[in-house]
Amino acid sequence: MNKMPIEIVTPERKVYSNEVDMIIARGGDGDLGILAGHTPVVTTLKVSQLRVRNEGQETIIAVSGGFLEVKPEKVTVLAESAELPEEIDVDRAARSKERAERRLSDKGDSTDHRRAELALARAINRINTATSKR
C-alpha cells in the first residue's frame, strides 16, 4: 500500500507526524477515508477522533475542531487542539464533562448553552479517546 505523509499541528505544537497508509476523519460533511493519491480537498473537522492507520496499527488522536487539507504531497491537520490517548488526563476530562452537563441542565441563555454543548462534546471525545487504547 502506498504511504502518505501526515502532520497534525495545533497552535502550541506538532502532535503527530508520520508516513501512513490511511486517515479517517470526521469532516464538516461527514466521515472521510483518505488514501495516498486522494483528490485534493480542504474541509473543516468536527470534534471527533481522527484515526491514522499504518501497517496494521491504528493511532487515535482526539481533535477539537480545525481543518484538514489533502494535497498530492501531504495531508495536514490544523487542529484547535489534538491529543494522543496517553496525553489525556481522564479525571480532568470527566470533571469537564460534569461541569458541562450541569451548565446544560440550567436554562440560561443560548450562548452559554452552545458553549456547554461544545465543552461536553470535547470532554466525551477526550474520554473515549483515552479509554479506547488502554
From TrEMBL:
Q: How does it assemble?
A: F-type ATPases have 2 components, CF(1) - the catalytic core - and CF(0) - the membrane proton channel. CF(1) has five subunits: alpha(3), beta(3), gamma(1), delta(1), epsilon(1). CF(0) has three main subunits: a, b and c.
Q: Which family does it belong to?
A: Belongs to the ATPase epsilon chain family.
Indicate whether Metal-binding appears among the record's keywords: no
The biased composition feature labelled Basic and acidic residues covers 90-114
| Gene designation per UniProt | atpC
- Spell out the SUPFAM superfamilies in the cross-references: Epsilon subunit of F1F0-ATP synthase C-terminal domain (SSF46604), Epsilon subunit of F1F0-ATP synthase N-terminal domain (SSF51344)
Q: Its function? A: Produces ATP from ADP in the presence of a proton gradient across the membrane.
Q: How does it sit in the membrane?
A: Peripheral membrane protein
Give the top-rank taxon of the lineage listed in the UniProt record for this protein: Bacteria
Q: Which NCBIfam families does the protein's record reference?
A: ATP_synt_epsi (TIGR01216), PRK00571.1-3 (NF001846), PRK13442.1 (NF009977), PRK13446.1 (NF009980)
Where would you find this protein in the cell? Answer: Cell membrane
Name under which the protein is recorded: ATP synthase epsilon chain
One Gene Ontology term of the molecular function aspect: ATP binding
